[in-house]
Structure formats: C-alpha cells, structure tokens
Amino acid sequence: DEEDGDDKNCIVPYKDRRREAHTQAEQKRRDNIKKGYDSLQSLLPTCQQSDISGYKLSKATVLQKSIDYIQFLLQQKKKEEDERNALRKEVIALRIMQANYEQMVKAQENQPGLIESRVCDEVKFDVFQNILDQLFITFNSVSVNNFSELSACIFTWLEEYCKPQKLREMVTTVLQRVYSTRTFSRPNA
User: Fold this and answer.
1) Where is the composition biased (Basic and acidic residues) (predicted)?
2) Of 21, 79, 164, 183, which one is least surrounded by beta carbons within 10 A?
3) Range of 154's domain?
C-alpha cells in the first residue's frame, strides 16, 4: 500500500508540472499574439491616428484596418507601375521619334540639292490633305454615340494609329504617292 501512496504523490506533481507548463506556454503564445497586434497597430498610420484619441482598438479593428491599408498600398503600387509603364512607353516613343528625326537630318545633309529646292504651297497642302485623309479613314471607325464613348475610343485610336512608326509609314507612303503624281520644278524666285 505504501508503494501506491508514493505513486500518487509522484503523479500529482507531474500533472501539476504539466498543467503549469501548459499554462506558461499558453501565456507565452498570448503575449506573442498581443505583441504582434501591438506591432501591427504601431505600423499602420490609420491605427496610430485612432490610438491618439485614447481608445484601445479591438483586434478585429486592427486586422480590418491592416487589410484596408494593405489593399490601399496594393492599389498605389499598381497605379505607380502603370505610371512607370506609361513613362517607359513614352520614352520609347520619344527615342523612336528622335531616331527618325536624326535620320531625316542625315538624309537632308546627304542631299543638299533638296534643301535648296522649294515646294509650292499647293504641294504642301496636297501632302497635308493626304495625311489627314489617311488618318480620317482610320478615325471614322471610332464610335461617337456619346461623349464618354468617344473619349474612351479616341485614346484607343491614338494608341493604335498614331504611333510614331505607323505615322512614319503613312507619311512615307503619302510622300511617295504625291511625289510620283507631281512633277517638281523650281519655282521662280
């Protein structure tokens, strides 16, 4: 019987130790969660403003404000990426335009006779009219049922038909056509 009594004394302290270890582990887990919420609250600008008022924010509020702020940051990131991509496209377009202008200057320098010859206003108008006619043909497909539809479609049209390379090809075609249909002579000075 004495052995049974000793076993019970050993078992009780073991259960107490287990319970105490479990309680400590649970308290440590809760402290870590609390520290995490406190850290999260200190990182969020929207939670810091509420904290000034003296009210303690609930964990659900901290989580919701965290979600809202992360969504805001993701939207800002996407907006900035879109702006960066638009700027990259603009830089590419400007570089293409620069290269085209440099080619035009070189071509003019290599053919000094063309610089000296003048083109009459009628030919200039003919070239201008042909370019605009070509643009109007493509623009005619733009929907104009209402202003908002026109606004949306016009940007799509601009991006598709007014790229520097497309404009260059169109102008080259128009110039070749005008040049082949007209005889250029030196105007009387």
Assistant:
1) 14-32
2) 183
3) 118-189
Tell me whether residue 12 is in a domain. no
Is residue 182 within 8 Å of 123, Cβ to Cβ? yes
120 alpha carbon, distance to own chain's centre? 46
Residue 68 included in any domain: no
Q: Which ranges of the chain does DSSP label H, i.e. alpha helix? A: 2-43, 45-52, 59-110, 112-116, 121-139, 147-161, 164-181
pLDDT tens-digit map of 67-109: 999 999 999 999 999 999 999 999 998 899 899 888 888 877 7
Structure tokens at 70: 């992360």
Query: Could you give phi then psi for residue 178, rounded to 5 degrees?
Result: -65, -40
Domain count within the chain: 1
Please check whether residue 59 is in contact with residue 44, taking contact to mean a CB–CB distance below 8 angstroms: no
pLDDT digits (tens, 9 = 90+) for 138-189: 888 877 788 888 878 888 888 888 888 888 988 888 888 888 887 654 444 4
Q: SS3 for 22? A: helix
Helix axes 121-139, 147-161, angle to 10 degrees: 120
Residue 1: which residues within 8 A CB-CB, separation 6 or more? none
Cα(115)–Cα(149) distance, rounded to whole angstroms?
A: 45
Q: Cβ neighbours of residue 135 under 8 Å, at least 6 residues apart? A: 161, 162, 170
